[in-house]
Design brief:
The chain is α+β, with helices and mostly antiparallel strands. It has a single domain, classed as SH3 type barrels (Roll). It contains four helices and six strands. A hairpin with a 7-residue loop joins strand 1 and strand 2.
Length: about 130
């Protein structure tokens, strides 16, 4: 089991299991949503996937997405956090720590998580 000092807002490169191909994984960036004893004493991590943008054009953003700048995501064109797709992975799937999101970005992620999992209705979110 990996023993990183797991902190909420840390981004890891993980071997993400493919849902339709048993035993096969692909490397993806995953934002950790947990901190403290709940993750320290667990063999799993709960997070959301971050997709890297492939070109400089404006990306398709859904209401539960959070756009990351190239500087914050350490990528050429930026990335987006998919806050409506929460996943649990085994810590053995973690390849490496990559970077940490800012407090301001994590505050936006928190809001979008409420929207993404249906705690806040979309019509109330944009009022």
């Amino acid at each position: 089991m990996k023993t990183f000092p797991f902190k909420r807002g840390d981004v890891y490169l993980v071997n993400f299991p493919l849902p339709d191909v048993l035993g096969q994984t692909i490397p993806k960036f995953m934002l950790n949503l947990q901190e403290g004893k709940i993750i320290d004493h667990s063999s799993t991590m709960v997070g959301v996937i971050i997709t890297t943008l492939k070109n400089p054009s404006s990306p398709n953003l859904y209401p539960a997405d959070v756009l990351l700048t190239p500087l914050e995501s350490k990528t050429q064109y930026g990335a987006k956090v998919l806050c409506n797709q929460i996943h649990t992975i085994d810590k053995s799937q973690i390849i490496d720590f990559k970077y940490k999101l800012s407090i301001t970005t994590m505050q936006e992620v928190n809001k979008r998580l409420f929207l993404g999992i249906g705690i806040i209705k979309i019509e109330d979110f944009f009022k």
